[in-house]
From TrEMBL:
One of its GO terms (molecular function) is phosphatase activity. Pfam families: His_Phos_1. InterPro entries: His_Pase_superF_clade-1 (IPR013078), His_PPase_superfam (IPR029033), PGM_Phosphatase (IPR050275). The lineage of its organism: Bacteria, Bacillati, Actinomycetota, Actinomycetes, Pseudonocardiales. CDD domains: HP_PGM_like. This is Histidine phosphatase family protein. GO terms for cellular component: cytosol.
């Protein structure tokens, strides 16, 4: 009998890989008919709701003791506001990666998308059945979304080999990243809750999914529900 044992090994990122934590912003302010959100480059830019500020604080506590080499946000303020508690704890200044901003929703921007979702509008039904955002008039084509998201992740990985970074971004973008990494249908991962943490490891040849929609730091447990985009 041999005395040699081979235990299951723990995951170790390959040399040169970048470990990326993807944090969905906290819940943003409600959409009110007749009072569209302010726009930034044509996209709705609501601030965090009070519940979203709680999400931000809990994300800050959850990640405060993790080794993080950089923080990134988009050009939409709900990500900056969500990153703020963690940035203050770590003494890091978030950098802006504009190409990880939310999916452009065309004529449904400014908060109208939420109303259409609540009404189960026929366009929303088509969106889910066809797996394309651009069934919404003027919305971002799938190919354009994938190109900008993949390009942004590639730039971040090139800038941070052998490092871990946290990226505060949006539900549609997290879904697209997970779709690219896993080879899934385009909208298979549209369930990230506000304040959740997902994770990929990016190597020269592949993206490795490590977690999706981790909400252990939030109330609600397994009943935590994702919110509409924007």
């Amino acid at each position: 009998m041999s005395d040699v044992e081979y235990r299951q090994s723990a995951f170790t990122p390959p040399a040169g890989a970048t470990d990326i934590l993807l944090v969905r912003h906290g819940e943003s302010a409600p959409a009110v008919p007749g009072k569209p959100f302010d726009l930034v480059d044509g996209q709705g830019d609501p601030e965090l709701a009070p519940a979203g500020r709680v999400h931000a604080e809990r994300v800050g506590r959850r990640l405060a003791d993790e080794r993080l080499d950089a923080l990134y946000v988009t050009n939409l303020r709900r990500t900056t506001e969500t990153a703020a508690p963690l940035a203050a704890r770590l003494g890091l200044v978030p950098q802006v990666e504009k190409d990880l901003r939310e999916v452009h929703l065309g004529e449904f921007e400014g908060g109208l998308f939420r109303q259409k979702v609540a009404q189960n509008d026929p366009v929303i039904q088509r969106l889910h059945s066809e797996g394309r955002w651009d069934v919404i008039p003027g919305a971002e084509p799938a190919e354009a979304l994938r190109g900008r998201v993949a390009g942004a992740i590639g730039r971040l990985a090139a800038a941070h080999p052998d490092e871990r970074i946290a990226v505060f971004t949006h539900g549609g973008v997290i879904g697209e990243i997970m779709s690219i990494a896993s080879g899934s249908l385009p909208m298979a991962f549209l369930g990230a809750s506000n304040g959740s943490v997902s994770q990929i490891v990016v190597t020269a040849g592949r993206w490795i999914v490590r977690r999706f929609n981790d909400t252990a730091h939030l109330d609600g447990g397994l009943d935590e529900q994702p919110a509409a985009l924007s």
